[in-house]
Amino acid sequence: MADFWSRLEGFADRPLSSVEKALVLSGVAFTGTTVAFLPFLPALGALGVAAVAGVLVLGGGAALLRPPKAPKGTVGILVALSPETEAYGIRIHTDFVQALGRFSDGGTETRIAIVEYPPKLAKTIIDRESAERAAFRSRCQVVIYGEARKRRLGGRKTHVITPTLLVRHRTISTARSREFGRTLDRIFPSRMILDFEGDFHNLAVASRMVLAAAQYAIAVAAMLSLELDYAEVLLSRIEATVAGFPRDKFPRSHLRALIRKRLGDIHSLRAERLFRQWDISRDRKYLAESETHVDRVLELSPRDENALLRKAIAAFVLRRDMAVAKRCIRKCRDSKNGTWCYSDAFLNLYDRRLIRARAAYRQAARMPGGAVDDYLQSEIFIHEVLEEEPEKYWLWFGIGTINLFSKEDTAAAASAFEKFKTGDINNEFTHIHVWAEEELHRHRSLEEANDVNTPQPKTPLAQQIE
Length: 466
What we know:
This protein is α/β, with parallel strands linked by helices and 466 residues long. Strands 2-1-3-4-5 form a five-stranded mixed sheet, with helices on both faces. It has helices at 2-12, 18-31, 48-65, 86-104, 119-122, 128-137, 174-187, 199-224, 228-242, 252-281, 284-300, 305-319, 322-330, 339-350, 354-366, 374-388, 395-406, 410-423, 430-452; strands spanning 75-83, 112-116, 142-153, 156-167, 192-195. Strand 3 (142-153) and strand 4 (156-167) form a beta hairpin. The termini are far apart. It folds into four domains: 2-65; 75-250, Rossmann fold (3-Layer(aba) Sandwich); 261-334, Serine Threonine Protein Phosphatase 5, Tetratricopeptide repeat, CATH 1.25.40; 338-466, Serine Threonine Protein Phosphatase 5, Tetratricopeptide repeat (Alpha Horseshoe), CATH 1.25.40. The longest helix is centred in the middle third of the chain and has 30 residues, at 252-281. The model is unreliable at 29-47 and 55-64 (pLDDT under 50). Helix content is 62%, strand content 9%. The chain has 19 helices and five strands.
């Protein structure tokens, strides 16, 4: 060490004070620079050593305080746990934070990168605002911040970790943001008390719990950004690992239920998109693809009404599978939405059960629909089936009742009923023809009365007739 100082004083051409020596040692400690790179000090005069040492200290300190960043192309999880001592911080880093990195490796196309703040930086994150700033600086989507302490509770030495989770995602409505926050609060362990006995295992399990909750948050954020493939892979991976969590320390069943719901949501979004493509193009390949996602939704949520309706349509259009279609519609009977009634009416109509079909169409006209144009879509659908199967003349009865009850278009209803009667060359449905003529007459009488009396009644005609 004496040789070190003598060489440095030789470069400076004067003795060094104790303060200057302290500055040099600090600079070397911060930056790793040695005297071999300081031959220029004599030219700086008496203050050369102090000035350079000060630069080394400031530069080294700035390097240490510069926030680390997640690599580009990764999803970053920033961990900023503030330990009570440096020695304890090393233990938390080794047994908790490094375990996060091990458990997050692999399994997804987009890699999850664990970014750790050193204790001095971790202490600066004290609330959501500072956490958001840190997330932005470190290119991270998720921040886990809080404190890690050693405490004696109930005569036992324990780790007490109080993490808080922050997730960055695209702008969404305030209501959805609050719902998202409440969900995370229920699954993220905000306070973990772990025994020192077997603490390596306990900290590793705790890290897996925290990571699972953080990954769920990332998956939901990806869903909100419509990155469905990534969200699905991540959720499936979490679902496979959550089963090993201890029930007494983590809300395992709740998280698994949430994962299944979100997976169902992903398949619902895909099914809906493909169904719309079929609805526009009538290319059945889209409907077939949509059905595969609908099946997955029904595996996860057997009573999903929208999926049941889509399944019924696919079963009929692709295979004329009346049994599956009827089974799906029966499961929707408790719904207060009138959409299922039109499907139920059509299936009865196709099966030649015209009285049941008539009752269902009347009920559909009186119930609130899932969409404004439910009855229009139903009418268009019947026309398409008639183009494929013109021999099923009785389908015109369905078009007539839709026009009579839902559209209140007696002229169109009369035209459809006439085509239905013309097709019935064997007079199989004489009683239905009589009913149609009587119903048309009653509607026309009401129309004439409404023309005379003003203002027009607020209730639909269909609700004035039993």
